[in-house]
Amino acid sequence: MSRTVTVLSRANCHLCEVAEADVARICGELGVEWRTEDVDADPELRAEYGDMVPVILIDGKQHGYYRVEEERFRTALTR
């Protein structure tokens, strides 16, 4: 099953940079497509997720926030 990962982040966010690096590494190893989206560019995203960035979405559904829990993330991508 093909998965798509989105990292909701914002500029100048250290936790976002760390999460993006983790997602890039893990998704690269698993061959999973991923992208980033600026939470501040969309008022609806900012209202819903602005206090939680970085937020990791898998197939558009919230998987986690603040940090990538590697084992849990890998399991979700390989189920």
UniProtKB/TrEMBL annotation:
Pfam families: Glrx-like
Protein name in the entry: Thioredoxin family protein
